[in-house]
Design goal:
Layout (H helix, E strand, L loop, with lengths): L7 E5 L4 H12 L3 E5 L3 H13 L3 E5 L6 H15 L4 E4 L14 H30 L2 E5 L12 H21 L5 E7 L8 H4 L5 H6 L10 H11 L10 E4 L7
Helix pairs in contact: 1-2, 1-8, 3-4, 4-5
């Protein structure tokens, strides 16, 4: 029996990258997965991959930034599939930029809307269902939430916000049996980080400061997420779990 057998899980930003890997991993462990992404063809592609290996998956397209749309999708998921047991807030974006750049206010607004407001919107829309199932929420944070050497003001602060939001949600929802945790990836090999990995502040810089001396892969996020979503983590709440090859240990 899988670690999340019979559970209903929703993963945002699951059309590619970390989200797709997490969605496929949850399906392998027995969950029915709601693949959510604003890119509908990408979401459908993930669904087809899951179904091709015997898993169960459904796709819903929505923009995490638009609270009204998220609420509507939450109602549709509830009507069609039932109350979710697991929510993985993975949708995110990263735009490099210093605080004093000319376009910093616009970049700030875009990144905060997706990374922080989006996490709030989706969590709030599904919290009623998660109270019913006494479910688990896993947010995607980042090691930059603990301090950063990168010049990406919106991304760094948004992930710091996700760290704090995770801890507040964990406290507020614990009386209802809902656990809230986060994983904090290091530099992962995804499409989103391709540009960063190619810069002087990319792979070579990161690996020189990381005991394991390499980047992470999407599959290496899957295990920690499944653990936090499963009953094996029944007494784990409010934790921000680094998955970084030891970067924060140095």
């Amino acid at each position: 029996m899988g670690l999340v057998q019979g559970k209903l899980a929703l993963v945002t930003g699951a059309g590619k990258g970390l989200g797709a890997a997490i969605a496929k991993g949850l399906a392998r462990e027995g969950a029915t997965v709601v693949v959510a992404d604003m890119d509908e063809p990408a979401a459908l592609a993930t669904v087809r991959e899951i179904q091709s290996t015997g898993g169960a998956a459904h796709s819903f397209a929505f923009d995490v930034r638009v609270a009204a749309d998220v609420v509507q999708v939450a109602a549709r998921v509830g009507e069609q599939l039932g109350a979710i047991d697991i929510l993985v807030n993975n949708a995110g974006m990263s735009v490099k930029g210093r605080f004093d750049d000319a376009d910093s206010p616009d970049v700030w607004a875009r990144v905060m809307q997706v990374n922080l407001q989006g996490t709030f919107n989706v969590s709030h829309a599904f919290v009623g269902a998660l109270k019913k199932t006494q479910g688990a929420i896993i947010n995607l944070c980042s090691i930059v939430a603990f301090g950063s050497g990168i010049s990406s003001v919106g991304y760094v602060v948004s992930k710091g916000g996700v760290r704090s939001l995770t801890q507040v949600m964990a406290r507020d929802l614990a009386p209802y049996g809902v656990r809230v945790n986060a994983v904090a990836p290091g530099l992962m090999e995804t499409d989103m980080t391709a540009g960063q990995r190619a810069t002087p502040h990319g792979t070579d810089w990161y690996c020189s400061r990381t005991p394991m001396a390499r980047n992470g892969t999407p599959e290496e996020i899957v295990g920690p997420v499944i653990f936090l979503a499963s009953s094996m983590a029944s007494y784990v709440n409010g934790v921000i779990l680094p998955v970084d090859g030891g970067y924060l240990a140095v």
